Amino acid sequence: MSGDPSEEELEELRKKKMEQLKEQQGGEGEGQEAAQQQAEAQKQAVLKQNLTDGARKRLNTVKMSKPQVGEQIEQQVVALARSGRVQGQIDEDQMKELLSELTPDSKSFDIKRR
What we know:
Blueprint: H1 7-50, H2 53-65, H3 67-83, H4 92-102
Organism: Haloarcula marismortui (strain ATCC 43049 / DSM 3752 / JCM 8966 / VKM B-1809)
Family: Belongs to the PDCD5 family.
Region (Disordered): 1-45
C-alpha cells in the first residue's frame, strides 16, 4: 500500500458522502414543510378572526367547487386584514361582494331558433 486508497475504501467514502447529502436534503425539506404549515396556520387564524361563520361557510363552499378562486379570496381577505382595511368581521353579504368582484363574469349565450 503506497498511500493509494483501494476500491473498497473509495466505495465506503462515496457511500458516506451520499448519506450525508441525503440527510442535508431531508433536513431542508422538513424545514420548508414546517414553514409552509406555520404559514397556513397563520392564514387560517387571520381568516377565523376576520370572517363570520356564514362568510367562512361560503368561502369553504367556493373552495370546494373552485379551489383557485377560493385561494384568491383567502389571499385577498388576509391582505385586507393585514393592511387594516377590515373593520369588524366580514359577513356573508360582504363575502358575496368580494366573490362577485374577483370571479370573472360567466359568459352566457342565447340560442335563437329560426
